[in-house]
């Protein structure tokens, strides 16, 4: 897995030993996404529509998942906007500009190169920007391993 840590952009990539079609399913089927991402989603992903649910990762069960699906370009790009590290239920994050999370898939000789980029941290309030960046940087590293294990266990 590669990592690039710019000041306002998180980039992670991993080569998965699975065809693009399989990785695409794991990313964009809301139930499969929920299994490896550890979130229970209320409905399938639809471009331009909100996606809601609850985090199921231990210790974060109180956190509501809220994102807006941006792109679903079959077997190439899946993206959404959200409020990064928005874990305090007493805080209203709706006034903040969300970050953009983009997954892109490329075929390789042995499977699929999956890249995730989260951009827009410069728009997060300065008081919480460093923690949000740090937590999501580590979070995306973990999620790349989660999807890798998921597609290996569910070919």
Please, could you describe this protein's structure?
- The chain has 155 residues and is of the alpha+beta class.
- The protein has a single domain (2-153), classed as 2-Layer Sandwich (Alpha-D-Glucose-1,6-Bisphosphate, Chain A, domain 4), CATH 3.30.530.
- 27% of the residues lie in helices and 35% in strands.
- It contains three helices and eight strands; from the N terminus they run E-E-H-H-E-E-E-E-E-E-H.
- It has helices at residues 20-28, 30-37, 129-153, and strands spanning 2-5, 9-16, 39-41, 50-55, 64-73, 77-82, 99-107, 112-119.
- The protein has an eight-stranded antiparallel beta sheet with strand order 1-2-8-7-6-5-4-3.
- Helix 1 packs across helix 2 (30-37) and helix 2 (30-37) crosses helix 3.
- The longest helix has 25 residues, at 129-153.
- The model has no long low-confidence stretch (mean pLDDT 95).
Which runs of at least 5 residues are low in confidence (pLDDT < 50)? none
* Shape, principal axes of CA atoms: globular
The strands making up the biggest β-sheet line up spatially as 1-2-8-7-6-5-4-3
CATH architecture: 2-Layer Sandwich
Number of strands: 8
* Rg, Cα atoms, Å: 15 Å
Q: What percentage of the residues does DSSP assign to strands (E)?
A: 25-35%
Q: Considering DSSP H and I runs of 4 or more, what fraction of the residues is helical?
A: 25-40%
- The span between the termini is 20 Å
The main β sheet shows up as: 8 strands, antiparallel
With helices defined by DSSP (H or I, 4 residues minimum), what is the helix count? 3
Averaging pLDDT over every residue, what do you get? Answer: 95
């Amino acid at each position: 897995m590669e990592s690039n840590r710019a000041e306002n952009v998180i980039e992670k990539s991993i080569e998965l030993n699975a065809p693009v079609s399989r990785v695409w399913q794991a990313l964009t089927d809301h139930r499969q996404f929920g299994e490896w991402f550890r979130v229970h989603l209320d409905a399938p992903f639809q471009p331009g529509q909100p996606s809601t649910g609850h985090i199921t990762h231990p210790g974060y069960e109180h956190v509501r998942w809220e994102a807006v699906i941006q792109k679903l370009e079959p077997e190439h790009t899946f993206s959404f906007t959200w409020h990064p590290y928005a874990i305090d239920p007493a805080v209203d994050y709706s006034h903040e500009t969300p970050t953009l999370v983009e997954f892109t898939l490329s075929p390789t000789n042995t499977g699929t190169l999956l890249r995730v980029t989260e951009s827009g941290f410069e728009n997060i309030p300065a008081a919480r920007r460093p923690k949000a960046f740090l937590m999501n940087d580590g979070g995306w590293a973990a999620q790349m391993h989660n999807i890798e294990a998921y597609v290996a266990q569910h070919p």
